[in-house]
Fold this protein.
Amino acid sequence: MESQYNSEESSFIDFKAVLNSVISKWYLFVLSAAMALFAAYLVNRYTIPKYEITSSVMVSNDAQGGTAAALLYGNDLYQGAQGLTNESILLKTKTLAYKALENLDFQVSYYVQGNVKLLEAYGSDAPIKVAFDTTSADTPYDVTFSIDLNADETYSLFTEHLKWNNAFGNRKFKFGQPYEVEGFTFTINLLKPEPFKENEVLFRLNELNDLAKRYASGLQVAPYGGDASALTLTLTGETPKKDIDYLNALMETYRLNNLAIKNADAVNTVNFIDGQLQQISDSLNFIESRLEEFKQRNSAMDLSTLGAQIAGEVQTLEQERAELLMSDRYFDYLTNYLSKENSSAQIQAPATLGISDPVLNTLVSQLVTLQTELNVASNNQGQSNPGIIVKRQQLEEVRASLRENLSSLKAANDLTQRNLNQRIRSATAELQKLPSSERQLINIQRLYELSESLYVLLMQKRAEAGIAKAANTSDVTILREASVKDQIAPKPLQNYGIALIIGLGLPFAFIFAKELMNNKIHTVEDIAKFTSLPLLGMVGHNSKEDNLLANLSPKSAMAEAFRTVRSNLRYMTSMDESIPGEGKILVITSSISGEGKTFSAKNLAYIISISGERTLLVNADMRKPNNNSDLGVSSSNGLSNYLAGYASLDEVLCTTIQENLHVLPSGDIPPNPSELLLSKRMSDLIAELKKRYDYIVMDTPPVGILSDGLELMQISDANVFMVRQDYTIKDFLINLQLQIESGKVRNTAILFNDVNYEKLRYGYGYGYGYGYGYYAEDNETKPWWKRIM
C-alpha cells in the first residue's frame, strides 16, 4: 500500500475517525437520549409547578380637586415625596405586607400529600377549616399537623414536634367544637371528607409577622416601562390563586394607605386651625357682649367723623399686629416641632396661616420630603444602611437651616411689631382728645372688628382644608389586577429540549474526548497519517493459543495473509543490490513488546520454508528467550552462547519439524547482549549464515525500548516493523518516521497485526489496559464493557 503520509496533518484530530465511531456507537446515542428524556419526564411529572403572578399600578402626582398636600406643601413637594423609587420601597415594606395580610385568611395553610408531591390546598380546595384564637397564651406557629379522620367521625392530630405531639396524644376531637390544649384554643370544621380517603391532610399555623417578611422579600417591583408613572408587581409561588389574592390585597391596601396619608395631612391642618379658632372665638364673644352693653347704656351712640377716622387707622394697625402675632405663634410651633423627633405627617406648612416667606416654605418642603423618604426607607432597610445615614445627615442640615431662618424671621417680626406698637400708641394718643364715651366705643369696636376679621380668616382656611379633604382621591390606580403571567417551572418543552441536547451531546463529547486523548493506532489510515512507510500486509486476530498458526491451519486466512507478506518481501529484497546467491536478512522488530513480533517472525519463517527455500529463524532478542517447542526445538544453547565463544555454529543451529526451517535460539541470557550483537563474531556469523541459507528471519528486540534492533536493521536486506491494532502508540510511529527522515532506517515496511476487519470497515473502537513494559506482554481479553466502548 502506498502511504498518504502528510507531516502537516499528522498531529490533528481525526474527524473521520470520530464520525466512524459515532456511527458505530449509534446505540449509545439512542440509550443516552432515552435516559435523558426519561429524566426530563420525571422532572416535569414530579416537580411542583411554580408560577409568575403580575399586576400593575399607576402612581399619579396630580392634585385632583385641590388636595390637602397641595394646600399645605404645594405640588412640587408632593411630587417629590411620591417618586417611583420611594413607592417601590414602600410596596416592599413589611408594614404594608402586614396590613394586606390582615385582610386575608393566610394564617392557616392546608396541604394534601400526594404520592410524591405535597400540594397546598387553598381557599375552596381546602378539605378543612381551622379557626384559632390569636391571643392564645401559646400558639404552635410554624408547626405542621397531620389530621386523621376516625371511623366515629372524630379526628386526631399528630405532629413531629415533640411538645405538641405529647399534648395532643391520642385524643379524639369533634369537628365544629372548640378545644383548649396547653393554652391553645382552636376549632376545626370538616369541609370535604373525600381527600382523607386516599391522601394525608396537613395544616400549619402561620405567624403574620413571618408571613409579611416572606411576602415582602419575595415581591419584585419594577418600572412599568417608558415614561409611564406606573409600577409592575411580580410574585412567584406554587399556589397561583393564593398569590393572586395577595397581590390584589396588597394593591388595595397600598391605594387606601395613600389616601389615608393624604387625608391625615388635611385632618392635621383642620385640628391646628380649630385650636386657634377656639381662642379667638372666646375673645370675640366676650368683646361682642361688652359692645352690646355699651350701646345699651349710651343709647346707640355714633362716632364723630374724627373718631371714625382715628378708629379706622387703629383698626388697620391692630389687624397687621394680629397677623404678626399669628406668625409668632407658628414660629413657636415650628421651633417646638424641631426640638422633637416628630414625623412629617404632624408638621403644618407656613401656607396654612398665609406666611409666604419663600426661604421658610422651601426649607419646610425639604424637611417634609427628607423625613418622608427617611421613614419609607427605614421600614425596608437597616438603620446602618449608607443611604439612610446620608439622608439623616441631610435632614439635620435642613433642621439647622430652619432654626437659623426662624431666628431671623422672629427678629424681623419683633422689629415690625415694635414699629406697629409705636404707631398704635400715637393713634391712641389722638383718641385721648375725644370725649370719654366716644373713646370707650372706639376701643370696644376696634377689638371686636379685629377678633372678627381673624375669626373669618381662620374659618376661611378651615373651609379650604375641609374641601381639600373631601375632594381627596388616592393617587394610586390599579391598572391591571393580578393574574398568572407564566409557569416558570417546570417548563416541559424546554426540559425535553435540554434533555435531548444533553442526551445526544454526552456520548458525542465522550467519543470526541476519547479520540482527542487517543494515542493508539486503529486503522490503516492512522498508519498512513503518521508514517511514510509502505504497508507490507495485514494479519488478522489470532484467537488460538498455538503461535504456529500456519502449521495448524495451512489453508486459513491467517496463513494466506503470511503468504501475501512473503510475496511482498520477495519483491522488496529483489530490489536490493546485494551479492547474487547470498541469503537475504529479514529483520522483524516493533516499538514495544506485545505487538506480535515473535508470532509474525515464526510464522513468516515457516511460510518461507514451505516454499522450498532454506530458512533460518534467529531469536536475536537475547534478553527475552523464546520458546520454540512448537517447532520441535528444545536446545538451551543459542546465539548468546555462540557470540560469547562457548559454542560453535553447528552446535547452536537446530532443526525443526519443517524440513527447510532451522532455528538459532537466543540461548542463555547474557549480561551484555548489546555488545555481543555489535561484536565482530556477530558480523562473521551473518556472513556465514548468508552462505548457508536463502532467508534469515531475525526476531530482534523492540526498537522503542532498546537500540539493538536499530543496529541489526542497518545490516538487513528488508525490515518489517510490527504495528498492532489498538495497541501500538502513535508516538512510536512518529519517532520511526523521524528515523526514516534522518536516514537511519531504510528498506522498511509495516506489517499491521491483530487486525479486526470489522473495525476497519465500520469504524473502530479501542480500549486501554495494555502495558508498555518490555517484559510484560498483555494477552488479557477485553471485558465486555470495553468491547462495547
User: Anything to note?
Assistant: The chain has four domains: 15-47+492-517, 108-205, 299-462, 524-761. The first strand starts at residue 50 and ends at 59. Residues 15-47+492-517 form one domain.
